Amino acid sequence: MTYLFTKEGCGKCDWVKQNINLSSITGLKVMQLDADNSEALAMLAYYECVSLSEKKLPILVSEDKEIITGVGYIRKYLQERCL
Fold first, then answer.
1. pLDDT at 83
2. Residue 76, SS3?
């Protein structure tokens, strides 16, 4: 499973959600970070990305547990490996 962590009101997160057809990517789960989503917060902690999420979003965690930040890098990863 590949995880994409996003947050409401994040311009870069919104760009990814609006410009990449995320629903067409098999094995991708989009997890919105907010106080009500304990599953997303737990997964973020599991991948040791809590402090990173305070500085950079969106965050993509690949099936190989590679942590990718930056809209350009996330788009490239998804295009090369998932589309």
1. 56
2. helix
pLDDT score at 10? 97
Provide the CATH number for the domain around residue 11: 3.40.30.10
Average pLDDT, the chain: 94
The DSSP result for 20-71, as a single string, is S-GGGSTTEEEEE-STT-HHHHHHHHHTT-HHHHTT---EEE-TT--EEESH
Structural contact between residues 4 and 58, judged by C-beta atoms closer than 8 angstroms? yes
What is the tens place of the pLDDT at every residue in 35-52? Answer: 999 999 999 999 999 999
CB neighbour list of residue 20: distance below 8 Å, 6 or more residues apart = 75, 78
Please give the residue range of the domain that contains residue 48. 2-81
Cβ-proximal residues to 24 (8 Å cutoff; 6+ apart), any chain: 83
Work out how many domains the chain is built from and give that number.
1
Residue 81: predicted pLDDT: 76
